Task: structure prediction
Amino acid sequence: MSESFIHVKDLVAAYEENGVNVPVLRGISLDIEKGEYVAVLGHNGSGKSTLAKLLNGILAPDAGELFVAGHDLSNPEIDEDEIYALRREVGMVFQNPDNQLVATIVEEDVAFGPENLGVPSAEIRERVDRALALVGMSDYAAADTNCLSGGQKQRVAIAGLIAMSPSLMICDEATAMLDPIGRREVIETLENLNRDQGVTVVMITHYMNEAARADRVIVLDDGKILADGTPREIFSQPEMLRAAGLDVPQCTALTHALRARGIDLPGEPLSEEECAEIVCRAWRERWTK
Amino acid sequence: MDKIRLEHVSFVYGDKTPFRAEALHDVSLSFGAGRVTGLIGHTGSGKSTMLQLLNGLEKPNEGKIYLDGQDIFAKPREMRQIRFRVGLVMQYPEYQLFEETVRSDIAFGPRNMGLSDEEIAVRVTEAANFTGLPSALLDKSPFDLSGGEKRRAAIAGVMAMRPEVLVLDEPAAGLDPRGRDSILGGVRAYKEATGATVIIVSHSMEDMAMFCDDLVVLSKGKVLFTGTRNEVFSRVRELEEVGLAVPQMARLMMLLREKGLPVPENIYTVSAATEAVAALFE
Result:
């Protein structure tokens, strides 16, 4: 049994299409500790979503070790009760905001999870109010879910998970269908949960600026882990990112292009502000010598 | 020259109900022939409503819309023709695929136009080429394609009608970088081959900076400003005030200027920014 909150070793997963075995994950290993905020990057078909579904027990691994929150998901004999226990701890947010809400009133939707867990009704009330406050949707408790924006719907979906007090939140491109404002709302909500409530977050995305804010970035390519490190370590490798079919953050690309021209720029800027700072300092030095 | 012109257009959802919401208010603007125009603005700013007015899918409560100088609502019987000339690709168009094969799905539009079988076959091949759909996929069920391929098939279905105006509502939303590049590349190929006018909505300012000649900024159902790409993106602070982003490199150049570095305006791409910054060190 492993010490890590999430322990993955030599994990293999495949699906069958027309009788042919198609491998999706080809032996990946990683450990994630409680309280980490991890972004997973990779192009479509790289195995990101399969990994998410494995972590939540929606899919079962074909080989390798997989432990999540103390549950051994690689055990083929795992019983249903243990899967349910796992899902109580692991919340999942999907891409489409219109597919995740079950009730027509916001607070009823948020109460759906704890009701199913058999939580006493007074406590459900408390959990729902707290969850809506945490995602900044208290004012909409009695609103019709159909009248919300995409970002608001995703925040209600997240509140529904919070009401079940999960220790792990998995987001599978949860911001892909949102506009920039909705995206920011959801990301800030997740960051607050991680920072203030200690919820572990695994965020699958292809937006580089979202990954740049994580503690750690894992790059998947063709079912294997291509890189695993801090955002700065990952974004200092533009060739690797391009090879994995990903965008290179523009400030990174600029810094590397300038270095190739012989301009000495220290560090790896992750934002326009940092990049401006570095360029400005180098420029002053250049003309004071 | 104007391809499409809007004059004092207003549009209201749920008029005379308690849910009345005005989506566009007294909008006048024009889209240049053969130009690529980007519409930017928040969700709810009226972008999608405007696109649906352009081919007569919705009718404005007030004002007129002209295509090549002709009022598109003047002769209701000719509306079908207008829709063939102004092709609209809606958000997530892959949900609208329905035929048994990709080929017949792409052929649906041209078939409705009453074209001959030979002409339809030519149009299907041409549209598949623009969007980079391999011919091997054409006889598959659209439901067996990947998400990016489905999106390309749906766009090919509109291109197969060879519209003079191609209108796209967030054609790259939700795709990964490769998928996005292939969709935008397809639109570019169509435009270059046919000289069509293109009107596009996207939330990615980097994509808009690379792709568009002109930009229209909408806010709360009104036109905030219009102009060439350079004119609009030079107003960094004004755009940020209404909560819109500017391309990352435009923002970086503005920060450098504020620090006293003499960098030129109108820089939106990494390669242009590299040249401009490198010049400071020589």
